[in-house]
């Protein structure tokens, strides 16, 4: 099973990126956790560019999502919404459909439990437009319990994907 992690933050030392690194560390044997680092390479979405010839950064992004059984997205909230770089990445997948019924967990690395909720709600709205299967959407609080919380998110993804593949075996 393969989980693709995606961070809504591009900054060096990102707490969300650190959370995703933690997900790789706590993943059970047999679960491959791979990080997609190419959101910053995507051009601003332009439907006119799509179909006018392959754009390598877009192809890489689409293939990474296709190859994943599930996505784990950790993102900061910017201006009460999701970061533009993440929205741009998702926009490139709307027409091509890679996120359709894809199992996705959303979280935000936060200092306090009530932070990041508007960003997650905006992300849910956007992913709802592509019929992604959202199985988790809660901030994760930085502190001594973070690793256990991240392990819980990974477990949820593994459980959902395993149940799905058993159903269709
Ligand atoms: C320009 C900017 C806007 C932000 N807007 C919000 C916001 O609307 N709500 C919020 O809770 N935090 C907001 N924050 C705080 C970030 O969400 C927070 O610092 C987050 O942990 C950064 O994640 P990172 O360390 O992964 O980059 C903002 C930060 C920046 C730099």
Polypeptide structure, described:
It is a single chain. It is built from five helices and five strands. The chain starts with a strand and ends with a helix. The chain has a five-stranded parallel beta sheet, with helices on both faces. The protein is an alpha/beta fold. Helix 1 packs across helix 5. The structure holds flavin mononucleotide (FMN). Flavin mononucleotide (FMN) is lined by residues 9, 11, 14-16, 76-80, 109, 115-116.
Furnish the topology, listing elements before pairings.
Elements: E1 2-7, H1 15-26, E2 32-36, H2 56-67, E3 70-74, H3 84-94, E4 103-110, H4 117-128, E5 133-141, H5 146-167
Parallel strand pairs: 1-2, 1-3, 3-4, 4-5
The chain binds flavin mononucleotide.
């Amino acid at each position: 099973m393969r989980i693709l992690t995606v961070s809504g933050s591009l900054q060096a030392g990102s707490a969300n990126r650190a959370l995703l690194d933690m997900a790789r560390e706590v993943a059970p044997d047999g679960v491959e956790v791979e990080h997609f680092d190419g959101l910053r390479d995507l051009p601003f979405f332009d439907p006119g560019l799509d179909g006018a010839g392959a754009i390598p950064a877009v192809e890489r992004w689409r293939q990474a999502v296709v190859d994943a059984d599930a996505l784990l997205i950790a993102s900061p909230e910017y201006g009460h919404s999701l970061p533009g770089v993440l929205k741009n990445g998702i926009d490139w997948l709307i027409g091509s459909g890679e996120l359709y019924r894809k199992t996705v967990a959303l979280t935000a690395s936060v200092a306090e439990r009530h932070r990041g909720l508007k960003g997650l709600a905006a992300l849910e709205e956007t992913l709802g437009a592509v019929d992604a299967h959202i199985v988790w959407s809660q901030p994760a609080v930085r502190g001594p319990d973070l690793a256990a919380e991240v392990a819980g998110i990974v477990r949820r993804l593994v459980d959902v994907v395993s149940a799905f593949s058993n159903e269709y075996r």
